[in-house]
Amino acid sequence: MDIVERYIAAVQRELPEQKREDIGRELNANILDKIEALEAQKGAVTDTEVAEVLYEMGSPRSVALQFCPPTPLIATWIMPLYLNTLYVVLGVLFLLSLIGVTSNWLSGTQMSLLLFMKSLASEFLNHAYFAFTAITIGFAVIGRKPKNEEPQTCTWSPEKLPPAGKSWQHISLQSIFSDLATMLFLVMLIWYPLWQSNSGAQSIFTPEVLTILLWFTPVILVAIAHSIWQLRVRLWNRTMLLLNIAVSTAFLLVSLWIMLNTPILRIYSEAWEGAVSIASIERSIFVVVFVVAIIAAYEVIRDTRRLFRI
Question: Is 265 helix (H, G, I), strand (E, B) or coil?
């Protein structure tokens, strides 16, 4: 039948040349079997009924993909390692971009919050494009094995598997790097003016708030170390939950203290004259600190409940 020949030819055009003849014969046999089964039910079949059979089989491209699936750019057996490497590298690049942009901002570069976010995104993407391309090409090359060579399987032992737990015990990379970025940003806000005191840099905080934040820095460093520990373990346990409760409680108490001891920022009214009122700035900062306190309180309650569930 002409319609069957045209259908098989359309499928073959979507296939590699060396496989067209074999798959074409197999596909032709499958179609003839379907037509013969239809003839056994209804007798002679029309071209319209044959077209319906072909329509049910799918478009030529979808049928070709069933016979000859495309080779993925990253081999399936190496995909988990590829994704994990990509997430870790992009997370580290984001932290480095945050440090660089924050350093420029604290050193005197005039930028609003919107410009700060734009600079951070631009700095991160400039490095992320290259990192993504390099990692993808590297893993694409690693995943290409000779046809007669089987990929190496990773060695593992049932005895070394992590303990079974609830789904919430798994710590996502996004959560880890978000916490790291926040902590590093706080450390730079607190200490950068002191490191660069010779250049005339001044802290954005009032003396009272700066004093309490300086004493609070060890807690932030503990939080950074805790995030690095999470990056290695990736599963919540009792010790990690207790440490996270302690850190969150410290953040909650400091946030409440700062809220009760306004003003928070050292604001130079001359620089903001005519742009925005000092009162609105203070209210915005108060809301930010309040949100931090709410998040810390939530994490204390959440991790306490998790502690009793382990």
Answer: strand
User: 127 with 97: CB under 8 angstroms?
Assistant: yes
Q: Alpha-carbon distance 297 to 247, whole Å?
A: 11
Element holding 31 (H helix, E strand)? helix 20-42
The strand ranges marked E within the chain are none
pTM: 0.56
Bond into 162 cis (ω within 30):
no
> Which residues contact residue 168 at a Cβ distance below 8 angstroms, ignoring those fewer than 6 apart?
236, 306
In one letter, which amino acid is 104? N
Distance (Å) of CA 230 to CA 92, 104, 114, 164: 15, 30, 31, 17
Distance CA 47, CA 38 (A): 12
pLDDT digits (tens, 9 = 90+) for 207-245: 888 888 888 889 989 998 998 888 888 888 889 999 999
Instruction: Indicate the angle between helix axes 173-195 and 207-233, nearest 10 degrees.
Output: 150
For residue 31, give the amino acid letter: I
Q: Categorise residue 188: left if φ over 0, alpha if ψ from -120 to 50, beta otherwise.
A: alpha
Contact yes or no for 248/220 (Cβ under 8 A): no
Consecutive H or E run containing 128? helix 113-143
Between CA 49 and CA 215 the distance in angstroms is 82
Strand pairing partners for 265? 205
| Residue 31 CB-half CA count within 13 A | 27
Do the Cβ atoms of 236 and 306 come closer than 8 Å? yes
Cross-strand pairs, 205: 265
**Tens digit of pLDDT for each residue in 144-159?**
765 444 455 556 566 6
DSSP, collapsed to helix, strand or coil, labels residue 170 as: strand
